[in-house]
Amino acid sequence: MLSYYGVVSIAVALGALPGAVAATAAPTATPTASLAPTGAPTAAAVTAAPTAAPTAAPKSVLRLTVENVDFATLKADASLLALFTSEVAKSIAFNAGVLQAAVTVTVSAASVNIRADITPPAGKTALQLKESLASDTTIASNLVTTLGNNVAGLNAALSGTLAVSGIVTSSVAATCGAVLDATTESLLVANDTDPETNFDSDTWGHADYKCAEDMLLQAKQYKKGIHYLWCVIGHCATRCESHATATHRSTGYNDCPTAQNGLTTVIGCQSAVKNMLGFAERKQATPNFVLARKYYTEALTLWPGNCGALGYLAELELQLRDETAASAKLLNLCNICGPTDASTTTVLKTYAASGFTVPSHASCTVSAAPTPAPPVLNVDCKPLIDAPIEQLLKAGDHNHETNFDSARWGHANYACAEKMLMEAKQYEKAIPYLWCVVGHCSTRCPGDFCPTKPVGLVTAATCESAVWNLMGFAHRKLATKDALGMTKDTKNTTDARKYYKKALGLWPENCGALGYFVELELQLGNQDAAWQRMIKLCDTCGADHRSTKVVVKTYKDSIFALPWRASCGDGSSTLPFLGVGPSSYAQQGSPGRAGVVAGIFAFLTFFLGRR
């Protein structure tokens, strides 16, 4: 059996796909753009096609995979690649009923994936051509025959039987310039007044997110943009990451409307489009602030870390002259996105121009000057706590050290981690969340954005120690739900011990970690170890420290007697701890055989005396 070399991908288009290898041009990089509230997006570079110049007409798109062809071999032989590409275009042109000049082919790796953007013939729309191709059952056989008969030298690139699979048809919009130049009325279906359905994609092809950004941010065509965006959002669910067809996966979700902005998930795409809908409603000649707020809220429900939507929502409050609400929205933006994010800097400028006094939130300020300790971060943890753990994690990433989805939820913060553990008791969810928190200790401490600054810890060492302590707590308390929804004890005391040691190695006076370590030994029934760690806690932190008081109560609730120690306060027992009484306590701390016997006798005497 021949070895498998890969799949070759072919795209038929008026220009090369970003990152693909065209027959006549080198690969072009995929442009990136932010979701900042303002600023024009970077336009995608277009590689000139070797055939007829593009027109404003929409195109039909045909995608397929030619299997068992080694893309590397094709790419290495320019003549073979050119012949292969030409024969693919000829075969597809035959099935489409167009001249070969109307078809441009781009070839990319993963066997050979093919995308064809085809100019429809006169009298036929892009949608009609798409439907015609979708019902054509001869595309695969014609292409196999054409390539097998006409591409000399193709055998050198074959790793098996030549075959065609994964045929998908769609349509793309006319050039963005043509859409921007057209009147709003000419883009709409006659007699359809519903902006959610009346963009005429049969005539103009389906809408494109980058063109929508140009329409709103550069051309300021807000009314037109509303109709256009409703066409865009319909493709998020069918072309982005949760859409699990082999074709979409093999092309890396390049068809996702927001892929050029770095967003390839359904949720990210829908959130971005809802954000732009809110912007369009707010900026049109007769603003609809109710709908704008609705769309911003929906965008943030889908993706709480969407900095663009957070910024636009703050601008909406400024536009409505609600200073209190604007200040709160600005604080939330700063806490989640930071002071240097493009959305934050833009909103701060808008704030200054509004006539309101810019609030002096520490999290909105980039300054080396010392500032007073800020209050506990005013970030709404409720969406995080309410969401199931699966929604917080990156799809396909099972490493809890890296799989918290900060792109969607914003970077984790210590205050929310404490709520997650101490109030919601979500131990499993807190573990990946804490791994996101600890990564910021070394980069943000000391400084205003040190994760633990609100609790008075401002160095990298004390910050990491505090997070490792909570990590140990989460592992010690861990419980998960099985497939039937039943809670199952899955505590990991080995990792809990490891994290408590890391916490105390960084900061030996961490009273929280000292106390939790005592509780771990009690939980495991390690009597001597619990006693030794209790002494360390009392001597280091004193009887009045909250950790000491909590552990004294835990000790009293356990089956073990609390050892006497002056530093543990009056609550400590005078009962010998399994044979280690006050006399031997000060000497060694390890009970001998006689001491154990005496301790058992003393314990039984104490116990029976209480009955």
Structural class of the secondary structure composition?
Answer: alpha+beta
Q: How far from one another are the termini?
A: 82 Å
Regions with little confidence, pLDDT below 50 for 5+ residues = 1-56, 243-251, 367-378, 573-598, 605-611
Helix content range of the residues, please?
40-55%
Got a strand count? 7
Specify the biggest β-sheet. 5 strands, antiparallel
On the 0 to 100 scale, the average pLDDT is: 77
* Overall geometry: flat
Computed Rg:
33 Å
Quickly count the helices. 28
Description:
- With 611 residues, the chain is α+β, with helices and mostly antiparallel strands.
- The protein has a domain at 7-172.
- The protein is 48% helix and 9% strand.
- The chain is built from 28 helices and seven strands.
- The protein has helices spanning 71-76, 78-96, 126-134, 139-150, 176-181, 201-204, 209-218, 222-233, 236-239, 246-250, 266-283, 289-302, 307-319, 323-337, 342-354, 382-386, 389-392, 406-409, 414-423, 427-438, 441-444, 460-477, 493-506, 511-524, 527-541, 546-557, 582-585, 593-610, and strands spanning 7-12, 21-22, 59-69, 103-118, 158-172, 479-481, 487-489.
- Strands 1, 2, 3, 4 and 5 form a five-stranded antiparallel β-sheet that branches. Strands 6-7 form a two-stranded antiparallel ribbon.
- Strand 6 (479-481) and strand 7 form a beta hairpin.
- Helix 13 (307-319) packs antiparallel against helix 14 (323-337), helix 22 runs antiparallel to helix 23 and helix 23 (493-506) packs antiparallel against helix 24.
- The chain is flat, with a radius of gyration of 33 Å.
- The model is unreliable at 1-56, 243-251, 367-378, 573-598 and 605-611 (pLDDT under 50).
